[in-house]
Design a protein that fits this description.
The complex is a heterodimer of chains A (139) and B (156). Chain A has 139 residues and is mostly beta strands. Chain A has one domain. Chain A has helices at residues 64-73, 93-100; strands at residues 12-16, 22-26, 32-36, 44-54, 105-119, 122-133. In chain A, the strands form two sheets. Chain A has a four-stranded antiparallel sheet, covered by helices on one side. In chain A, strands 2-3 form a two-stranded antiparallel sheet. Chain A is elongated and about 65 Å long. Chain A starts with 11 loop residues before the first strand and ends in a 6-residue tail after the last strand. With 156 residues, chain B is mainly beta. Helix content of chain B is 8%, strand content 46%. Chain B is built from two helices and nine strands, in the order E-E-E-E-E-E-H-E-E-E-H. Chain B has a nine-stranded mixed sheet with strand order 3-4-2-1-7-8-9-6-5, covered by helices on one side. The longest helix of chain B is centred in the middle third of the chain and has 9 residues, at 67-75. Chain B is globular and about 50 Å long. The relative contact order of chain B is 0.19. The chains are: A mainly beta (139), B mainly beta (156). The interface between A and B is medium-sized, with 16 and 21 residues. Strand 3 (32-36) of chain A pairs parallel with strand 1 of chain B.
C-alpha cells in the first residue's frame, strides 16, 4: 500500500457511491431476477479538483509536485492508499462516513492526474480516484 | 416485479495430506459455517454438467492467480490428489445464510491450468453412473474391486 494522499483541501469534490456487485436477468415475461455476488459495495468514485495551486511545495502549502510525487509513489494506478480527512473538509461527519470509511475500501487512482497550467507557478490539478474492495490476505 | 437472489458457495478442499482449505465467495469478512471458518476467496465455478448417460459432472473453479491459489494447486500435487465438497446456499436479505442447501456435491481433483491472471482447478465427480443399462446399484469395493478415481471405468 502506498503512502496517504497529500493533505490538500480540494476546490471541488464529486463523489459517487459504490454498488453491490450483481447481475440482472430479464425474462420474456418481463419479470426481473437479480443475483447478488457479494455483501459489500464497491467501485466508489471520488473526483477532486485543486484549482490554482503552486507547482512547488512551500512550508505551508502542498502543491502539484506533492500530488505528482504521490502518484509516482503509488505506482500510478496500481497501488492503493488512504485519503486524509482534510480532503473531506466541510463535509458533514455522517456523510463523510459513507465516503471515507466504507468497510474494506481502498482508494487508488483511476487515471493519471491531469495538470493544467494557469500561469507561472500555478496549476489546476484534477484527480480521479476509485474506491475498491481489497480481499483480506489469506495465510 | 423483481426477484432477488443471493447465493453463496462454500469451498471445502482436502489436499494430498488430508489438510482442509475452506473458502466462500460472498462475505468479504469471512463466514463461519458450523464450527469451521471460511475465508473469503474470489472464486467462481463453471461447467457443472449433468447428462442422461450418467452424472459425470465436471467442474472448473477459477481463482485469480494469487499466492494462496498457487498453494492450493501445489498442495494438491497439481490438483490431482484433492477432494472437494462444494455447497451452494442462499443468503437472506439480512445477510444470514439459510439452512436450505441448494446443492452439495463431492468432487475429486483431475488437474489444473495456469495463466498470468487466473488459475483453473478442474474437478470431476467421485463416482459416476457407468451407463444407462447398468443396474442401479451402488458401486463399492465389494462388487467392483478397487474403486476408480474418475469416470474412466472399463467393464469387462
Amino acid at each position: 500500500m502506498a503512502d496517504q494522499f497529500p493533505e490538500i483541501k480540494p476546490t471541488t469534490r464529486k463523489f459517487k457511491m459504490g454498488d453491490t456487485p450483481s447481475t440482472t436477468y430479464t425474462s420474456l415475461s418481463g419479470a426481473i431476477f437479480k443475483r447478488s455476488f457479494g455483501n459489500v459495495k464497491t467501485n466508489y468514485t471520488l473526483d477532486l479538483t485543486f484549482k490554482n495551486i503552486p507547482d512547488s511545495t512551500t512550508e505551508n502549502f502542498k502543491s502539484t509536485e506533492a500530488i505528482l510525487t504521490h502518484y509516482e509513489g503509488a505506482d500510478g494506478t496500481f497501488s492503493s492508499f488512504t485519503i486524509p480527512d482534510l480532503v473531506f473538509a466541510g463535509v458533514n461527519s455522517n456523510v463523510k462516513g459513507y465516503i471515507q470509511a466504507p468497510t474494506g475500501i481502498k482508494w487508488r487512482y483511476s487515471r493519471p492526474p491531469e495538470v493544467q497550467s494557469v500561469q507561472s507557478n500555478l496549476s489546476t490539478v484534477t484527480v480521479s480516484l476509485i474506491g475498491e474492495i481489497e480481499a483480506p490476505q489469506i495465510n | 416485479m423483481t426477484n432477488e437472489i443471493r447465493l453463496i458457495q462454500f469451498f471445502d478442499l482436502t489436499d494430498a495430506k488430508g489438510l482442509p482449505y475452506l473458502f466462500q465467495n460472498y462475505f468479504i469478512e469471512g463466514k463461519r459455517k458450523g464450527n469451521k471458518m471460511f475465508d473469503f476467496a474470489p472464486f467462481q465455478t463453471q461447467g457443472h454438467v449433468s447428462n442422461l448417460g450418467g452424472d459425470n459432472s465436471q467442474l472448473t473453479i477459477l481463482f485469480p492467480t494469487t499466492d494462496y491459489a498457487i498453494r492450493l494447486v501445489e498442495l494438491g500435487k497439481g490438483n490431482r490428489k484433492t477432494q472437494l465438497k462444494l455447497t451452494t446456499k442462499t443468503v437472506n436479505k439480512s445477510g444470514t445464510v439459510t439452512d436450505q442447501i441448494l446443492s452439495e456435491e463431492f468432487y475429486i481433483g483431475i488437474g489444473a491450468s495456469f495463466s498470468e491472471s487466473t488459475i483453473e482447478l478442474r474437478f470431476n465427480t467421485a463416482i459416476d453412473a457407468v451407463g444407462s443399462s447398468f443396474p442401479a446399484q451402488r458401486l463399492s469395493e465389494d462388487n467392483v474391486g478397487i474403486l476408480p478415481l474418475d469416470s474412466a471405468l472399463s467393464l469387462r
